[in-house]
Design brief:
By secondary structure, the chain is an all-alpha fold. The chain is 85% helix and 0% strand. The longest helix has 34 residues.
């Protein structure tokens, strides 16, 4: 392919990675905020996911332009198709993160500290693990390494799922002790967003694996 095409593709990858890194940093600040309900950390987290929709729209426009100008084939076409779908997943992951911050900020002071330490924090760590491995996949062109990183995302996402189920079970077992059902529901809804972020990381990792190895998009 032409040098200008390679330059455009590198720019697209770099822009996607920048958003993914910001998403990861936002969730790291959420983890820092969880123990002390730190408004400062929550605010810092929000700063990393501003205007993601606008940024992904620019990426989509760049992809469409590359498709029109260079008519890429085979793996190059596969990469662009994957990235066109990845931008949508990044928007969804950022929206989940924003909702998580909003919901957790409201309920943080009322949460059982044992639940936060035993389940919520480990769940958020698992989400961050999934995001970090996904970010590594963006620049990775080695098929074997890509599959290893994908496995890391898959394991972390599964861990996040399991921990949310544990939180839900723990809360439901003690629901009679907690008369504030509205707060309980808000708490579960908020924590569910952390698990959804890990889901989105897995979806992006699947698309990156498709871009690298081919096959079908699931």
């Amino acid at each position: 392919m032409l040098p200008k095409y390679q330059e455009a593709l590198t720019k697209i990858k770099s822009s996607v990675k920048d958003i993914a890194v910001g998403l990861c940093k936002a969730n790291e600040h959420i983890l820092q905020a969880m123990g002390e309900c730190s408004e400062e950390e929550f605010t810092e987290a929000r700063s990393y996911i501003r205007n993601v929709s606008g940024k992904t729209a620019d990426i989509d426009n760049e992809i469409v332009k590359v498709l029109a100008l260079y008519s890429p084939e085979a793996k190059d076409l596969r990469i662009l198709v994957a990235y066109l779908k990845i931008t949508n997943e990044l928007v969804r992951a950022s929206s989940n993160t924003r909702s998580f911050i909003k919901g957790f900020t409201i309920t943080c002071q009322e949460l059982d500290k044992e639940i936060i330490e035993e389940y919520a924090k480990p769940m958020q760590r698992a989400t961050i693990e999934a995001l970090k491995a996904m970010v590594e996949m963006v620049d990775n062109d080695d098929s074997d390494e890509a599959e290893e990183l994908y496995s890391k995302v898959l394991i972390a996402e599964s861990k996040s799922d399991d921990l949310y189920d544990m939180i839900e079970s723990s809360v439901l077992e003690n629901i009679e002790k907690n008369s504030d059902y509205k707060t309980t529901n808000k708490m579960l809804s908020s924590l569910r967003k952390s698990e959804k972020i890990a889901d989105r990381a897995l979806s992006i990792a699947s698309l990156l694996l498709y871009a690298n190895l081919g096959g079908e998009i699931h």
